Amino acid sequence: MSTAPKTFEEWWAGSHYRSFVKREGVPLYEDSYLENLATLPLSDWERRGGKAAYTRLGDQEVVNLQVIEIPPKGELKPDRHMYEAVMYVMSGTGATTIWQEGEPKRTIEWGEGALLAIPLNAWHQEFNSSADKPCRIFFGTNMSQVINLYHNLDFVFNNPFVFKERYSYASDGEYREKAKHWTKRLFETNFIADIKKFSLDTWEERGARTSIMRLYMGNSGSQIHILEVGEGTYVTAHRHGAGAHVIQIDGSGYELLFMPGGEANPEQRRKVPIQPYGVVAPRMNEFHQHFNTSKGRFRQLAFKGWDQRLSTTTSRGDYDPVGAARSDNPHGFSFKLRYDKEDPAIKKEYYRELEKNGVTLRLEPLDQGPG
């Protein structure tokens, strides 16, 4: 029999997501930057096995990461949930088995660099196929948002409802092989074997300097994209709502983070190094800027929350995933800071970093027209 709360402390629940992580008995990492997910300390995870940690980055609880390590020849316990999840493999080899209640199981093998969508509320189980090496993966999810919305873990993790329009063995055929390039910069798929090798579309507004592909995965609304910045250049500072998680996949460089006003004041800018499996998650309205200081390509994977425009009932043929980013927004919300408006010291510092790393190529950054 429950007792009605008598004090504010008893009544105030705060974050249901934080309470859930505490119950899981594993670390919760905060801030807006983590240096390396591949070496992040984890703790034993009783609920599913292996080791795990969660994130709460960018002072928000819409998007979070779930970082997991599976021991050699180990496996996680089966799981299903009412939040969307996309899995990325940082190291190791293994397989994920997916199924709906009462249907046959489908197993998808993966290795480092693989990206796999988990269908909403379908059962899934992960296995490490190596006899002597652990594998480390992470899931980009909206778990925090869903747990905070429903306040009921039984509903989130033990819900019998089957979303057959999201996934069914009978209707999905070869789930692993599904792929369609709907339009420029927008690709629908459920599985990519290695995103380091995945072909991107050029972003003409930035010439040969930048390429991008937005991914629609697992019949979900997850906003995911892969961005590549050319050698010897960097992208404009830009900002948006909190929730975006930018994970470095290949190459190295640094990120600048600053709130409005920092574009003219170096004391207000935060510079953080970025290397494979570092992650940056800007806070609400915080400008962030990607600088490639490596020889060769610089590739990032980004989770950006959930987009109502991506759905199985909406035509996506004319959808431009980058065209909406404008600096002349009529409501006064500036998404992008033009290069000619930034502190000249930003470019000078970047060129010093290139010189230090022996990179001789200099591609003058170009603005993308009035937007």
Describe the model.
- With 371 residues, this protein is mostly beta strands.
- It has two domains: 14-172, Jelly Rolls (Sandwich); 197-310 and 322-356, Jelly Rolls (Sandwich), CATH 2.60.120.
- Helices cover 12% and strands 32% of the residues.
- It is built from six helices and 25 strands.
- It has helices spanning 8-11, 16-24, 143-150, 153-157, 169-172, 344-356, and strands spanning 28-29, 33-34, 43-44, 51-55, 64-70, 85-91, 94-99, 106-110, 115-118, 123-128, 135-141, 179-183, 186-189, 191-192, 201-202, 210-217, 222-229, 237-238, 245-250, 253-258, 270-274, 279-280, 287-292, 298-306, 336-337.
- The strands form five sheets. Strands 2, 12, 13, 15, 16, 17, 19, 22 and 24 form a nine-stranded mixed β-sheet that branches. Strands 1, 3, 4, 5, 6, 9, 11 and 14 form an eight-stranded mixed β-sheet that branches. The protein has a three-stranded antiparallel β-sheet with strand order 8-7-10, with no helix packed on it.
- Helix 2 (16-24) crosses helix 3 (143-150).
- The longest helix has 13 residues, at 344-356.
- It is globular, with a radius of gyration of 21 Å.
Mean pLDDT: 88
Text of the CATH class of the largest domain = Mainly Beta
Alpha-carbon distance between the termini? 59 Å
Total domain units: 2
Low-confidence parts: 308-334
CATH architecture of the largest domain: Sandwich
